[in-house]
Recover the amino acids of this structure.
């Protein structure tokens, strides 16, 4: 197994010094679950929240078969496929959405702990509702991303919770005896006249972050596009608030909303349905704008993320700007909000074209870049 883990890569996600495909928490989860996985029947091992395939392929290398796996990020799912081909383990697992089919009758669940307590609550409730009564959940993470608040969340859905000793700044929580199971239900709120829905773990939850608010306050009254063939694009849509805003504030407009996160896409779909605009808004899970043809968009909005898995990095936005440039028509516009300290304006000028500042507050800057 060690040779398999040592060969894994993050590609097609960002690869840079300090960004790893496997860490000590992955190895600890695999070590603590080894005896459980050995006795589990084919199809009874489930992996949730794997990053790039370490847990899935580590379990497969140890003999587990018919593994069911859920990776939230599309880039992580594609990295799993690429890594499996590299180590000759293709066909040993099946990616699935975070739903009942993923965990039904599972005996062993390997879980990389999410940082969001709401996300952990959704996952724990789902396992408790549909897994085998004898299921054992081996959940681990890096100590810097864990909190004692995770314990009562798991204890609400499992009778027994054991805590491992720390190793290499990582720890494992082992849960047994499922109870009080439930399927995930999105949080709901009404913000500035719009309904927002958010499953656990999606950025900003059922609220409006201050950067997005600043962007919305400064969007133009009648931008070009908004037709079925040239929809407004909500890139990295999160809960879909911007897409829903455009669909309601630009009457009759069509919108294309996309995000690589499965939980974001599920949240955005629920948001569109709650606002009654699902007939004019397409929501897709995509790596940036991979499903959009070149030179097909006149108007793109973006609040770029700065996390790749749990790592903070400034390598994501440049890739998103480059793909926005590919998708924009000549003269098309990218409206972007970003943390002022990141100083993205020169990069936007080089990547897309002439860029001007539209608004700025104590923390965020809104710019519009016109594709040259």
């Amino acid at each position: 197994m060690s040779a398999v883990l040592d060969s894994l890569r993050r590609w097609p996600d960002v690869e840079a010094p300090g960004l790893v495909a496997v860490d000590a928490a992955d190895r600890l989860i695999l070590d603590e679950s080894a005896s459980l996985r050995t006795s589990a029947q084919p199809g009874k091992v489930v992996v949730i929240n794997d990053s790039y395939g370490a847990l899935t392929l580590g379990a497969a290398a140890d003999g587990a078969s018919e593994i069911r796996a859920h990776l939230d990020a599309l880039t992580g799912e594609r990295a799993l496929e690429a890594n499996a081909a590299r180590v000759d383990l293709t066909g040993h697992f099946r990616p699935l959405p975070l739903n009942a089919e993923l965990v039904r009758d599972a005996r062993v669940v390997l879980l990389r702990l999410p940082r969001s307590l709401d996300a952990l609550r959704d996952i724990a409730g789902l396992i408790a509702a549909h897994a085998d009564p004898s299921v054992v959940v081996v959940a681990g993470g890096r100590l810097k991303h864990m909190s004692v608040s995770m314990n009562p969340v798991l204890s609400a859905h499992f009778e027994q919770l054991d805590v491992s000793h720390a190793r290499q700044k990582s720890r494992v929580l082992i849960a047994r005896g499922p109870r009080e199971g439930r399927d995930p239900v999105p949080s709901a709120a009404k913000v500035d006249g719009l309904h927002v829905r958010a499953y656990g773990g999606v950025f900003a939850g059922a609220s409006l972050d201050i950067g997005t608010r600043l962007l919305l306050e400064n969007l133009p009254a009648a931008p070009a596009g908004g037709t079925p063939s040239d929809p407004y694009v909500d890139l990295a849509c999160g809960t879909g608030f911007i897409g829903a805003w455009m669909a309601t504030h630009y009457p009759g407009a069509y919108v294309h909303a996309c995000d690589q996160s499965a939980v974001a896409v599920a949240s955005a779909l629920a948001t569109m349905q709650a606002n009654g605009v699902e007939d004019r808004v397409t929501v897709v899970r995509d790596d940036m704008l991979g499903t959009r043809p070149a030179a097909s968009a006149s108007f793109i909005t973006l609040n770029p993320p700065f996390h790749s898995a749990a790592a903070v990095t400034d390598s994501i936005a440049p890739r998103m700007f480059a793909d926005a440039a590919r998708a924009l028509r000549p003269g098309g516009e990218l409206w972007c909000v970003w943390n002022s300290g990141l100083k993205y304006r020169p990069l936007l000028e080089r990547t897309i074209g002439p860029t001007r500042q539209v608004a700025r507050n104590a923390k965020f800057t809104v710019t519009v870049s016109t594709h040259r």
